[in-house]
Structure formats: structure tokens, C-alpha cells
Amino acid sequence: MRTVGVEEELLLVDPDTGEPKALSAAVLTRAVQEDPGQDLFQLEVFGQMLEFATRPHTDMADLGADVVRSRKEAARLAGEVGCAVAALATCPVPVTGALTPNDRYRWMAEQYGIATQDWLVCGCHAHVAVESDEEGVAVLDRLRPWLPVLRALSANSPYWQGRDTGYVSFRSRLWSRCPSAGPTELFGSPARYHGQVADMLASGVILDQGMVYFDARLSAKYPTVEIRVADVCLRAETTMLLATLARALVETAARDWRAGRPAPDHSVSLLRLAAWHAAHTGLDRELLDPVTMRPRPAPEVVRTLLEHSGEALADSGDTALAEEAVDELLHRGTGAREQLRLMERTGSLREVVTECVRRTQG
């Protein structure tokens, strides 16, 4: 069975006011003081962000427990230095990012100018194991039309800089300003994939392979396909659903490749429209159907994803988990919908942030 792990980026905020706090270095120092060999937490581009990465797991319940445990540990360490963690993909209240003092991040700030400030955003990346680069590239080619559905399921960023954006995943719109971000064309082979990455590096527009910000890519560190479209999810159970569906989609894509079924040949232009549509309305209205690229009610499209990956879900024993989690998410709404309801009730974005601090830990 394929392993899957996740990386989550969390926002550091004042627990009482909801104001972002640039204390990630202090949190990391605290973690290293307790365990010099710790590799759970790391810094991100801005000091108001903290990242953690789970271990790879084959059992989804174990992965979910790992996410919850990591969030609680992040909250404990943050509390000891005077802040709290919130699983918010954008900061609802006004903020100016405090750049982490790092040569790589300084290069980004100099290269991309004011756009860099827009990247104080928090995502969730799922790493699913693949057997080889050949299998990995075949999977990337077949995942492309399904990634906007994962974005819709994870949507958790309706507010930014004190404003209602009119999107449910505005994080993805901000991130799309990065020159290497977004959907990709069909690669067809590892040689073509690695050739394109080499050409991008040679252009000088990006600094290193870590800045190849495709919606899904071969990991430079691990033998995995890394799916990068999701907002960080407000609730840990949504993260577990995302990882479950990511693994099922990867397994389904690999089986289709081995069976000789061709990858869907949707243009990058259509995939960009699907990505925008998912970021705009999420599960609230329509999504573009991954097969036809025509609008359909979002719940129907999510059910289509479950049907498409149904054999893989059944073989991993995750069918009931996925179906129940989808039903709950469609009933309760995404993190974006929860934020919007909180704002309607309280009239205060600061209250939205402080309540999301509580929901981050369940």
C-alpha cells in the first residue's frame, strides 16, 4: 500500500487579538532546545508562519492522529513564546509579512518584489509514494483534471488583508502570481519532465528546484508525487480526507497507466479555468467536471471523484472513511464557509481568527 504524508503551514497569531505574530524562529528555537534532533517543524518564508511535516503512513487513522498530534505540539510550543497557531490559509486581518532572514528568501524578495508579500499564505501538501520517476510522471499526467476538486474541498481562505475577497480559496489566486505555479501540460516521460525543470532553472527566473511550484510535481527530496493545490484545512479531519483522496487518485492514475489508458488531454488553458472556478466558489455552486470540463453541481463532481477512485479506495479499506468525510464536509461546509458564518455571527475578523485558533486543534 502506498504511503502518504502531509505538510501543513500554520499561521502564528496573538491568541487574544488575532494579530499575526512573527515568532516562528522563537517557536523553532524552543523545539530544538527540547529536542536538538527534532525534524517536525521548520521555518517558512515569513516569520508569521510555521510548517510541520508528518511521517509517511499507510493507515489513514494513523495519519490523522499524526496531524492532530503535530498541531497540538505546535500550539504548545507557540503558547510558550506568547502566540497561538491557526490553520488559516490567508490572514483575515491586515498584516505585513516579516521576511525570515534567509539567503533564499532574500533572493525571492529581491527577484519578485512586492509580489513576495502576497505569499504569506498557508497550504497543505500531500506526498504520495510512487515506485519510480516513470510511474510518477505518468501519475502527474493523469492527476491534472482532478486537482481543482481537491482545491475546492480544502478551500479555507475567503478573507485577506481585512477584506472579503469574493473567493473561497484566495490563497491559490495569490500563489498563482508565482511565475512557476499552476497546472502543467502533459509530460509523457521522465526525460521531458526533468528537461523542463532544467530549462526553468537555466532561465534564472527561479533559484532552485524547490521553486518549481507546479500544482503537482515529483518531490526533489522523497520518492513521492507532491500534490500542492490545497489550502491548509481548518479541521484536521479535512486534512485526513484530502490525503485519503490524494492517495486514491495517485493509485488510480498508476493503474490507468499500467493498463495503457491514455491521460486526459485537457489543455492548460482549460485546467486554469477549472482551478479558478474551484477557487472562486468551491463547493458552494458548480465545479468543472474533470472528464467533460463543463460545469456541474459541485457535490456531483465530488461524487464523480469518489467513483473514479472507488476501486483504489476499496482496496485500501478507505471507502467508508472517504464517503462519510465527504458527506460531513458537504453538510458542514469547508473552512471558508465556516469563516464566512463566523463573520456573519460576530461581525469581527479578529473574532474569526481567535475562533479558528480553537477549531485548529479540534
From TrEMBL:
Q: Which SUPFAM superfamilies match?
A: Glutamine synthetase/guanido kinase
- Enzyme class, one word? ligase
Q: Which reaction does it catalyse?
A: L-cysteine + L-glutamate + ATP = gamma-L-glutamyl-L-cysteine + ADP + phosphate + H(+)
Which GO MF terms does the UniProt record name? ligase activity
Q: Where is the signal peptide?
A: none
The domain of life is: Bacteria
Instruction: Fetch the InterPro entries from UniProt.
Output: GCL_type2/YbdK_subfam, GCS2, Gln_synth/guanido_kin_cat_dom, YbdK
Q: Which UniProt keywords apply?
A: ATP-binding, Ligase, Nucleotide-binding
Q: What is its EC number?
A: 6.3.2.2
Concerning PANTHER family, the annotation shows: GLUTAMATE--CYSTEINE LIGASE 2-RELATED
NCBIfam families linked: gshA_cyan_rel, PRK13517.1-1
What's this protein's function?
ATP-dependent carboxylate-amine ligase which exhibits weak glutamate--cysteine ligase activity.
Question: Family per UniProt?
Answer: Belongs to the glutamate--cysteine ligase type 2 family. YbdK subfamily.
**HAMAP family from the entry?**
Glu_cys_ligase_2 (MF_01609)
Q: What is this protein called?
A: Putative glutamate--cysteine ligase 2
Q: Organism classification, top ranks?
A: Bacteria, Bacillati, Actinomycetota, Actinomycetes, Kitasatosporales
